[in-house]
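Reopening this one. Same input as before:
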Amino acid sequence: MGLDFKEDSNGYLYTGELSGVKHFALWPLTQAAESCFGTDQWPDNLAVPQAWIEFVVGNIEKSTEELKSQGYELLVATRKEPWGQFVTRLLGPEGLLVGITHTPSMRK
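Same output, byte for byte:
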């Protein structure tokens, strides 16, 4: 596809230079599992996500409560990542790992 990615020390590939997108990345499943479950292994009792997408929201607490009220089973709820991002994640019925995020450093 001709995309130029940067790579961090853990193999996370990303770019902020794709027109129309703030951040585009390829996230290894081991890292997604670590972020959701604290281990690099995806649990056997859950479907392995086929892709990952995140939506930026202004109020992570309100958005998380809305998902809960609609009956979504959350993998992670309003957790602060080491880089300062707050995230709620769920597995969507279409096989996506869906993140609802709030990153204060990107809102300045």
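So the earlier flakiness isn't reproducible anymore. For the record, The mean pLDDT is 87.
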